[in-house]
Specification:
With 502 residues, the chain is an alpha/beta fold. Helices cover 38% and strands 17% of the residues. The strands form 5 sheets. It has a 6-stranded mixed beta sheet with strand order 6-5-1-2-15-16, with helices on both faces. It has a 4-stranded parallel beta sheet with strand order 8-7-11-14, sandwiched between helices. Strand 12 and strand 13 form a beta hairpin. Helix 4 crosses helix 15 and helix 8 packs across helix 10. The longest helix is centred in the first third of the chain and has 28 residues. It is globular and about 70 Å long. The N terminus is likely disordered.
């Protein structure tokens, strides 16, 4: 009996040592560049965020899976619209040039608007870049999963969907902060799934325009993007890298404009635009009159040419002076930020002509007509009978929408990997949107049901908390005004999703 007990103790000790050794080896072998959410997805089987990548479809089955596109809100539908209608390549040999056949004919798509967690551009200014990175990875995990929530009240994801064969990050801020993490996650997943971000695509489109222009010796490139995207330095860094890679020797000045409130206004965020109001409110978080770089300059009111109709501006005046001034339409945000960019260029040392402006946020193309109209006004604006801005705008100026080159890069990647669906039927679009979860206490919700600012930007990384869930698009979770804008500005996409709206 003693010999038997001794044997059991020895065996137990051996198993314990072996387990500890294996654990140490696993920790040693585990990549050190993983964020908490990446580690949970790859290694922690007990986590709700664990992704069983071993169950991912084999390559010969992946061609029939949908293409995943995600953004911080509905603005990314402008990217999806371009992709759906793109005819940039020859469908037989993949060479550049339209052939009358849509590049993505027969392809299915999934779109995710992370509406509950937007605006993404605010996370960096709140010191929450780590949480922003986590959101980007969670969006990618949704694209790689086969589950979704039917309703925000559901305790578990009861809906079933297909996984995605490639991921397109339609959001510039998510690309700036989350692309590297998602790439790394996919590398370690072993799925072979690739990810494409809009920033490189936008910069490549800019250089295609520059290299085809006669005005090439000295020029400026404007970047209009969210505060977070601008603060990341992603666009200037990428512009200079591509300039080097392409051997471009001309002078390029990058003029950045932080679009505080622009994207939020497009999505009708209450703190930035509230169409029900007729007077200023205390909760306003958009630009105000002041002397700072990001303030509304009262001396430039005739340049901004704001539209005051339909309460597009909420204000109070005393003795002929504004005591309160709040923008209350997306068009006025567009005007303010474009004029601000031109003012920065006018006051710069170089004043090289503005060749292009990259619309570095997917929400901005919704206001492209307003931006074009404002630029036209600036070309002819005079003060003391002298043109003020015309010499700063190149004759062949263009607004650059990165979506076009994003579509080209996505198509080429799928062709190279042999993953085009090659269906004869028309492709479909399944659209999803994030909403606050059932688990969030009402005290952390605004009257319209959205997350409060303090709760949204006060969350910690690496937890098992589910504060938002992803549900299908519906008329209940889409603002009616936003839905009208979608119908008007992305009609091809709207036709794809309208029949599934309930």
């Amino acid at each position: 009996m003693k010999k038997y007990l001794s044997y059991l103790l020895t065996l137990a000790a051996f198993v314990t040592v072996a387990a500890l050794s294996a654990s140490c080896n696993n920790e040693k072998d585990r990549p050190q560049d993983l964020t908490p959410i990446m580690d949970k997805a790859l290694n922690q089987t007990s986590s709700r965020w664990y992704a069983d990548f071993d169950e991912f479809e084999a390559k010969d089955e992946r061609s029939q899976l949908p293409i995943g596109v995600f953004d911080s809100g509905t603005g990314g539908l402008t990217v999806l619209e371009v992709i759906l209608s793109a005819d940039n390549l020859n469908n037989i040999d993949g060479s550049m040039g339209a052939d009358g056949v849509p590049d993505f004919r027969g392809e299915d798509f999934q779109y995710l608007a992370d509406q509950a967690n937007m605006p993404y551009g605010t996370y960096p200014s709140e010191g929450k870049t780590d949480y922003l990175r986590e959101l980007a990875v969670k969006n990618a995990l949704f694209m790689l999963s086969d589950k979704f929530y039917n309703l925000s009240s559901d305790r578990s994801p009861k809906g079933r969907k297909q996984k995605c064969k490639i991921i397109v990050i339609a959001c510039n801020t998510a690309t700036a902060y989350g692309l590297a993490d998602i790439k790394r996650l996919l590398e370690l997943s072993g799925t072979g799934v690739k990810v494409i971000g809009v920033i490189n695509a936008g910069v490549n489109a800019t250089f295609e325009d520059i290299l085809s222009s006669k005005e090439r010796d000295s020029l400026s490139v404007g970047v209009m993007a969210t505060v977070g995207t601008i603060d990341s330095g992603a666009y200037p860094n990428t512009i200079m890298q591509v300039k080097k890679d392409r051997g471009y020797e001309g002078f390029i000045q990058v003029v950045n404009q932080k679009g505080a409130g622009f994207a939020e206004a497009v999505d009708l965020e209450k703190d930035f635009v509230d169409l029900s109001l007729t007077a200023p409110r205390d909760t306003y978080r958009g630009p105000v009159i002041g002397t700072g770089e990001d303030d509304i300059n009262e001396d430039l009111m005739d340049v901004y040419n704001f539209c005051f109709q339909d309460n597009g501006v909420l204000y109070k005046k005393e003795n002929g002076k504004y005591t309160q001034f709040q923008l209350n339409s997306a068009a006025n945000y567009a005007r303010f930020h474009l004029v601000s960019l031109l003012e920065k260029l006018r006051q710069s040392k170089e004043q090289a002509p503005l060749k292009s402006i990259i619309l570095g946020c997917t929400h901005y193309p919704f206001l492209l007509d307003t931006l074009k109209q404002t630029l036209s006004e600036l070309r002819t604006y005079r003060k003391n009978n002298k043109l003020v801005y015309s010499h700063l705008i190149a004759n062949d100026f263009k607004f650059i929408d990165p979506a076009v080159f994003t579509a080209i890069e996505c198509c080429r990647s799928l062709r190279e990997d042999g993953l085009m669906a090659l269906r004869t039927r028309t492709g479909e679009v399944d659209a999803f949107i994030s909403v606050p979860s059932y688990s969030v206490d009402n005290k952390f919700l605004e009257q319209d049901g959205s997350l409060t600012h303090d709760f949204k930007y006060g969350r910690a990384v690496g937890t098992e908390d589910v504060t938002t869930v992803v549900v299908p698009f519906s008329k209940e979770n889409l603002n009616p005004d936003n839905l009208k804008r979608i119908q008007k500005l992305v009609p091809y996409t709207y036709e794809k999703i309208k029949e599934k709206l309930n």
